[in-house]
Amino acid sequence: MVNTPVFRGSTILSNSLGEWESRKLPGNPYASYGRFGTPTTRALETALAELEGGHRSIVFPSGLAACTHSLMALLKPGDHVLLTDSVYGPTRDFALSVLTRFGIEVEFFDPLAGSEIRHQIRRNTRVVFVESPGSATFEVQDIPAIAREAHKVDAFVVMDNTWASPLFFKPFEHGVDISIQAATKYIVGHSDALLGAATANERAWSLLQRTAHDFGQTAGPDDLYLALRGLRSLSVRLHRHWENGVLLAESLARHPMVAQVLHPALPGDPGHALWRRDFKGASGLFAIALKPVSRDALAVFFDSLELFGIGLSWGGYESLVLPMLEAPARAVRPWKLEGPMVRVHAGLESCNDLMLDMQSALDRMQRHA
Questions:
Q1: Of 35, 76, 232, 277, which is the active-site residue?
Q2: Which of 46, 129, 278, 328 registers the highest number of CB atoms within 10 A of its CB?
């Protein structure tokens, strides 16, 4: 078969006592059970581990589940965890509302800190959580410099690598110990499944796998199949997202109602040099900061768009916008732009059509303002 079949089932039969006993794994006497994987599961996990350059991968029912369980796998009461101040909002909320309840000290660091993060690393720092670029404000982090400082105290570096995907950033070449994908986004690629994945090096793998099993984490066979389908076209789709995103961002930068474009692949972006050094490409996700306008004028902009849906998530074939009307939550470096922000995902449609649609909506907002 060209495509790995969809294996649906929970019970796996043994024909003899000897066969039953031979399937038991060290530390997991119940390994012969659907929750611990099927050929469909293993096909996706093997492919993801190879693409990311890690030791092994494990799947989760969502990207957030992959983030939270990677943290739980490595942390214990009394540990100190550092998270980038630009981290994905739900991951931030989990750290502040759940990890702290378990006696884990949570602290945030400036995403632009680089090697200066050493001033916040302690003897009990167990995890440094990075996300480059951040999925709201798009600061690019110096992952190798951060990893060098973290590893001096044997801390683990965990990275949310969803923006670049395994194609455009190779985390384990830059010192990451666990790389996370919200596979809902570019891996699945068609906005029809929720899925997460975490890939670990040999040092972190046993901890990650054990915690996932302890919490009963698994993913459904149809979602796994949709992710395997998405992998077949990942390279072609990502190059189109990259091209559309850059062209759209460049056109938006020229509009008088746009105060700033946040896209690391643009030469004028503060993170462009690091992006060129470490990344092999860009995705279709970026943000724009608008000049201050009334809510009525902003509504004219969003209501005028025809090709951009207003919605959460991204990474599918369709173009999206997301209103970000409140300043991003920050503990270290406040976000200072005065106008509202709009997160943009450039889909696979004709880029000329996308640019014209965005231009028309901005023009209408400008006339209203």
A1: 35
A2: 129
Q: Which amino acid, one-letter code, is at 120?
A: Q
Cβ-contact 343, 285 below 8 angstroms = yes
Catalytic member of 142, 160, 177, 278: 160
Q: Which helix (H) or strand (E) holds 21?
A: helix 17-22
Domain 234-368 has what CATH class?
alpha beta
**How many Cβ atoms are within 10 Å of 293's Cβ, its own excluded?**
18
Tell me if residue 88 is catalytic. yes
Spatial contact of 180 and 61, defined as CB atoms under 8 Å apart: no
| 169-205 pLDDT, tens digit each | 999 999 999 999 999 999 999 999 999 999 999 999 9
From 185, 237, 240, 343, the catalytic residue: 185
Q: How are beta strands 341-345 and 105-109 bridged, if at all?
A: unpaired
Task: Please tell me the CATH code under which domain 17-232 is placed.
Answer: 3.40.640.10
**pLDDT per position as a tens digit, 265-281:** 999 999 999 999 999 99
Could you give the 3-state DSSP secondary structure of residue 7? coil
Q: Which of 85, 88, 269, 278 is catalytic?
A: 88
Whether 113 has a pLDDT exceeding 90, the answer reads yes
Using a cut of 0.85, tell me whether the model's pTM lies above it. Answer: yes
Residue ranges of alpha helices (H) inside the chain are 17-22, 39-52, 63-74, 89-97, 143-151, 165-168, 202-214, 221-232, 234-253, 272-278, 295-304, 351-368
**Maximum distance among all alpha carbons in the chain?**
78
Residue 185 annotated among the catalytic residues of the structure: yes
Domain spans of the chain, in order of start? 17-232, 234-368
In the residue annotation, 101 being an active-site residue is answered as no
Kindly report, residue by residue over 325-340, the tens digit of the pLDDT: 888 889 997 888 789 9
Would you tell me the crossing angle of helices 63-74 and 89-97 to the nearest 10 degrees?
40
Domains 17-232 and 234-368 share a fold: no
